[in-house]
Amino acid sequence: MVQFTFSQNTSITISGDSKTSSEFFRELEKKSGFSFFYLDNWIENIEVTDNFVEASITEILNIVLSDTSLNFYVLEEENRVFLLQNTVVYDELPPSFYRQNDSITHEREVIARGNFPPPVFYNDHISQTAQNLPVVRIGRADEKNLKSTYKLSGRAVNAQTGAPIPDLAIRVQSSGRVAVTNEQGEYELILPAGYNLIATSAMGIRDSEQEVIMYNDGTLNLQLQESLEQLQEVVVEADAVSNVEDAISGSEEISSEESKDIPLVLGERNILEVAKALPGISSAGEGATGLNVRGGKTDQNLVLLDDAVIYNPTHFFGIFQALNPFTTEKVNIYKGAPPVEFGGRLSSVLNIETKNGDTEKISGEGSIGPVTGNLALEIPLKKKVSSLMIGGRGAYADWILQSLDEESLNNSEASFFDGIVKYHHKFNENSEIRGTAYYSKDNFSITSDSLYNYSNRLGSVRWAHKLSEKTTGVLTASNSNYNFGIDYEDDGNSNFELDYTINESELRYRLNTRLNDMHIFGYGLSAKYYAVEPGNVEPKGANSNVEPVSVDQEQALEGALFIGDEFKVSERLLFNVGARYAFYAAMGEATQNTYQEGAPRSETTVQDTIAYGSGEFIKTYGGPEARVSARYLFAPDFSIKASFNNSYQFIHTLSNNTTVSPIDTWKLSDLNIKPQKGYQVTLGFFKNFKENMYELSLEGYYKRMEDVLDFKTGADLLLNENVETEVLQGQGKAYGVEFLLKKNRGSLNGWVSYTYSRSKYRFDGDTSEERINNGEFFPSNFDKPHDLSVIANYKFTRRYSVSMNFAYQTGRPITYPVGTFRFNNADYVTFSDRNKFRIPDYYRLDLGINIEGNHKKNKLAHSFITIQVYNVLGRNNPYSVFFVTDDGEVKALQSSIFGVPIPSITYNFKF
C-alpha cells in the first residue's frame, strides 16, 4: 500500500474566479490533500476572488479568511484543517498554569504580550426573568495582538419601531461597570477578553441578558423588546441605575402608561396629577392650575412639550391635563439641579416627551369617558423610516353643569379640545428628525354675561445627528403662543372683548462628546425671543360705550451659553458639573418710568418717562449659573447624593388671586422689575432592596429666592400700563424633607410619599405701603407643611386589579377678617396679617376597579375598562374661604370643587 503525506508548506495553485465559497474549499481540499472541518453556513458569505500560484495552504487561508471572524488550525500529522469561529486552538498550556501564586495582573500581562491567549469558557445559565438573547462572539482572535480588554460599541433600538433607545443602562455583571446609551441609542464599553454577561434595563423596555465572548474589538447592535408587563404596573418605576447611580438628584420620571390604573377625577388619566403624588410637588388646592415644586411659585416651572414651552398644560382650571395620554410618552421632572441646557426658571423643569409613531403598522388607542373622548393614531409613512402620529381629544362637559340642581349654572358652558401631530423620519443610523405641532382651546362661562377662553399653540422641530464616533448634536427650533380672552355681554352698554397674548421663539443647539470612560461633555447655546401683548380691550357692538384700551407691547431677548461634564472619578464617586451664563435684554419700542428714590412707586412719584426706540435695549440682566451634583456609592444599591444650583428667571406671572387662574398675565423683566434669582442645595440618601423591588429615598433641600413678585393689597394688575406700581419684590425661602418608598413589582405595588416643607416670603420696604406683615416672613399661599400620598394597586390576576389613591395635606394659609370698624356711618372690615390662618386640612380617598380585556392575539382591538369613584368619603374639602356681609354681619363661606363622591366609568381600547 502506498501512503501519501502532505505538508502545509506544499505549493498549491488555485483560482477563486467564478467559484462559490463551497466550490473553492472543496477544490482546495482536493489539491492540498488535507481534510477540512467546518459548517457550511460559516463560509457561505465568503467571496473568494484571488488567484493563488505556488502558495502554501497557510498563506491561502490567511488571505481568504482575513475579513471574516474565522480562524483556522492545521493538524499536520493527520492532514486536517479545522476552521474556527472567532477563537484559536490552544495546543499548550501557559507558563502561569504551573505557578500557583501568579496574580491576575501578571497573567493579563502575559496575555497582553501575546504569548498565550486565554481559553474561553462560558456558562449556560441565564436569568429566567430577562429576555434570553443568543450567545454572541465579537471579533476575531489575533495571536499577534492579544489584549486583556477589548472595546464593544453599538446601538440599541426598539425591535418593534426601530426607534433608538436612549438612557438604556448596559451593565457588565462581573465588574458592575455601566454604560448608558445617548439620545441616538449609542453606547461604548470596555470588556475583559473572553466571556462576559451583560444586562440591559430601561423604562418601558424588557430587561435582557446577553452572553458576549470578546475575541477582539467589535460591534454589537441590540434590538430589544418593549416591556409588556410594565404596562400593567401602577407604580412610577425608575430603574436602579437612575435611582441610585446617577449623579443628578431630585429627578423623577413618569410614564403616561403608568397613570392608567390610578383613580383620578372622572376617570381621566392625568400625568400631572400623578406628579403631585410624588414628594416635593403639590398645588394650591384641588382644581388649581399649575404645580408648586419645593416651595416655588407656579411660574417658576419650565414646562416643555417636545422642546417647546407650554404655558398652561391644563384644561378647565387644572382639573384635566391638556395632554393626550395616548400620545404622551413620559415626563422627566427635575426638582434639584437640572441638566445644564435648561434654564430660565427657579424651581423645576418638566420635560414632556411624546411618542414616535409606529413605522411598521397602523395602530391606535383611544378612550370614551363621562366628559371626554380621546383618540390617537400611529401611521407608518415608509416602513422602518418615517411615521406620523395624530392625536385628538375633546370634552362634552356642558351636560354635567346643566344637570346640576343649581339654577345659576343652567346656562353655564365648559368645553375644551386639544390636538397634536408628530412627524418622525430616520434618515440613517446617524441622523433623524422629528416635528411636533400642538393646539389646545378652552371655553368656559360660569356666569351668564362672560365667556372666557384660553389657548396654547406650539410647534417644534428637532434634528439629532452624529458628527463623529464620539460626538452627537441636537438642533431644536420651537415657537410657543399662549392667549386668553374675555367676551363680556350684558343688557347694558358695557359690552367688550379683551385679549392677551404671549409668544416666544427659541433656537437651541446642544452637543455631546464622550471623551473617554471618565468624561462626557455636554455643551451648546440657546437664544429666545419674547413678544407680549399685555392686553387690548375693544367695545363689542355698536351700542357699547366702552373706551378702547391698548397696553404697549413688550419685547425681550434671552440667551445662554452652557457646558457640563459628567466626570467619573472612580466606580464609587461621580460628579455632574456644569456652568451656564444667562443673558437677558428688554427691548423697545416702549416707554418706561423712573421713580423717586426712597418713595413708593405711584403716579405721584414718577420722576421721568423715557422713550425707547424699536429694537433699543431698555435694560440688560444676566450672570453665571452653576449646576453641581455628586453621587457616592457606598454599595451597588446604596448611595448619597448632593447638589447645588442657582438660576435666573426673567419672566413672571402677575396675579392677585389666591390660586393661579388661566387669565393671569405674564410680565417680562424691564427697567423697574428685576429678574428673580434662586439658590438651592440638596442632600439625599437612596437605597434599593430585594433586587430593586423596593426603592427608598430620603432627601432634604434648602432654597433661597430674591426679587420674587407679589401684589399690593387691592392691586389692579390687568391692563395696567404702570403695573410696577402695583407689585412688590422681596425674598423667599423654602426648605423641606422628602420621603419616598416604592414597591415596583408583585401583586401589590405602589408607593408612599411624605413631604414636610415650608415656603415663606418677606416683603420689606422703606414705607408701610411697601411692606407686608411688617416686613416679616409669612407663609406663601401654597405653604402646606405636611403632605402625604399613598398609591396602591393590587392585582388579583393579569386582567383584574383594584387601586387606591389617598391624599392628605395641611390646609393652605388664608387671610381672615379679625374685626370691624365704623367710619362715616359705614361698616368696614379689618383683616389679619396676610396668610395668618389656615383653611381646614385636606384629605381624599379614591378607589378604582381595573378590568383588562382578554389577551387573545388575533383581536380587532384590546380593551381596558376602569370603574372609579373619586372622593369616596364625600369629604367637602374647602377650595377657598371667603367673606360676605349679610345684614351688617360678616359671614364666612366655603367653596369646594368636589364635595361628593364622583363615580365614573371609562372604556379604553387599543388596536
UniProtKB/TrEMBL annotation:
Compartment(s) of residence: Cell outer membrane
Record GO cellular component, one term: cell outer membrane
Domain of life where this protein originates: Bacteria
Domain TonB-dependent receptor plug: 267-345
Keyword Transmembrane (UniProt): yes
One Pfam family this sequence matches: CarbopepD_reg_2
Keyword Signal listed: no
Protein name: TonB-dependent receptor
Source organism per UniProt: Flagellimonas oceani
